[in-house]
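User: Here's a structure from my thesis project, written as structure tokens. My advisor, Dr. K., wants to see whether a designed sequence matches the one we expressed. Can you design one independently, without my sequence as a hint?
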């Protein structure tokens, strides 16, 4: 079976490995996978690029908020020489070593941008792509997409199935704050953050309380006066520089907050996440929603219900331990495509999608957390003869995402 994998980040890499080695690991079925990566290097967001007009959202000082014992794929641990919380370049090194270890590069097309994915009447897929070594920035309120240069030949190949693993750290999400365009200072998104130097001597508002918001704020505080604002703020967290969500921005560009306070700043940095984007798929096939951030329709976080398992989207969940989750989903995809596991009917899948796993409509169905990832892994095991989570010890890897030291202790490993 010929399978196209779109995206060369960790999710695409482990999916390629699972398919490439499926016949020797599980027997009876052989895949012919091809991975398309638009840039010149595999690794996805773990490829640090100094230029901001690129797909990378990595900043220079980033270290992981997960212990190295929690992060790797099941068949290759991270180097003992790495610190407990590796630097981003060490994660990239791990991924590159993984590719070499499994001899996967012959199945990869680098600097190849997929421009169109269309279903054919016979159940196959037409995948159009362009070979280009350059990227061109394209920006609007909701878009930050790679665009090949003119006069590049478009090639169309036919595949039996398509796996979309292009990640979701490309298109910045900026909340629709009333009047925020009245702000005349510098406004930017964490996608473009690399170093604290441009903030030196400024008064800065950092919006968002995820890992990047926290780490970037701590770094900028060394050179600037920093205030932080986030949803879910409580009075117990108030200290003069920790503020609740933004109410609005007035005509003078002053920020007003839900507790009645207000603030004038020189710069705003939005650490407010990213949106899903699939510019190569028609909107009649998949819809990307903004509030809440999710895509539809997908069954159990992976499969489109209308194509017999031949169109899948691994890597959607967030607030997860990602590498193990990618591996579990890749195994389920391989089981479905090989016929070792069956999907419900399209009607049953759509009914399940409508039920939203009990999630309210204002919360993204892709937002997980520890208990849900454990439950999801157990469910995937039921679909794959217990192979999805395999050697992973669910309770061991599922530790606190926010407290790095506690995560290490809970995982039963030393902090190094």
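Assistant: Designed independently from the structure alone:
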């Amino acid at each position: 079976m010929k399978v196209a994998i779109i995206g060369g980040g960790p999710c695409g890499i482990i999916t390629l490995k699972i398919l490439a080695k499926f016949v020797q690991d599980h027997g009876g079925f052989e895949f012919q996978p091809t991975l398309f990566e638009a840039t010149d290097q595999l690794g996805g967001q773990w490829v640090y690029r100094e230029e901001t007009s690129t797909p990378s959202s990595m900043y220079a000082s980033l270290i992981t908020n997960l212990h190295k014992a929690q992060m790797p794929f099941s068949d290759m641990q991270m180097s003992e020489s790495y610190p407990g919380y590796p630097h981003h370049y060490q994660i990239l090194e791990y991924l590159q070593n993984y590719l070499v270890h499994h001899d996967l590069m012959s199945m990869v097309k680098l600097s190849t941008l997929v421009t169109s994915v269309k279903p054919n009447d016979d159940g196959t897929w037409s995948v159009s792509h362009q070979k280009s070594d350059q990227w061109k920035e394209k920006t609007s309120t909701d878009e930050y997409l790679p665009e090949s240069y003119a006069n590049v030949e478009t090639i169309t190949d036919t595949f039996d199935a398509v796996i979309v693993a292009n990640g979701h750290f490309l298109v910045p999400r900026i909340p629709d704050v009333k009047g925020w365009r009245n702000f005349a200072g510098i406004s930017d998104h964490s996608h473009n953050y690399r170093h604290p130097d441009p903030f030196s001597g400024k008064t800065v508002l950092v919006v968002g309380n995820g890992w990047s918001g926290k780490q970037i704020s701590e770094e900028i505080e060394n050179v600037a006066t920093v205030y932080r604002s986030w949803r879910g703020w409580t009075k117990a967290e108030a200290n003069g520089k920790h503020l609740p969500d933004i109410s609005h921005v007035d005509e003078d560009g002053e920020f007003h907050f839900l507790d009645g306070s207000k603030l004038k700043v020189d710069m705003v940095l939005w650490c407010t996440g990213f949106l899903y984007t699939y510019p190569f798929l028609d909107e009649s096939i998949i819809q990307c929603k903004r509030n809440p951030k999710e895509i539809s329709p997908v069954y159990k976080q992976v499969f489109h219900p209308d194509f017999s398992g031949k169109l899948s989207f691994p890597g959607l969940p967030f607030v997860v331990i990602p590498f193990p989750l990618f591996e579990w989903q890749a195994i389920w995809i391989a089981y479905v495509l090989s016929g070792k596991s069956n999907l419900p009917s399209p009607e049953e899948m759509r009914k399940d999608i409508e039920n939203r796993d009990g999630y309210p409509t204002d919360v993204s169905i892709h937002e997980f957390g520890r208990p849900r990832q454990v439950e999801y892994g157990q469910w995937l095991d039921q679909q794959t003869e217990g192979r999805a989570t395999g050697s992973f010890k669910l309770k061991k890897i599922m530790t606190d995402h926010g407290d790095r030291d506690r995560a290490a202790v809970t995982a039963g490993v030393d902090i190094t």
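When you compare it with your expressed construct, this may help: DSSP finds nine helices and 20 strands in the chain.
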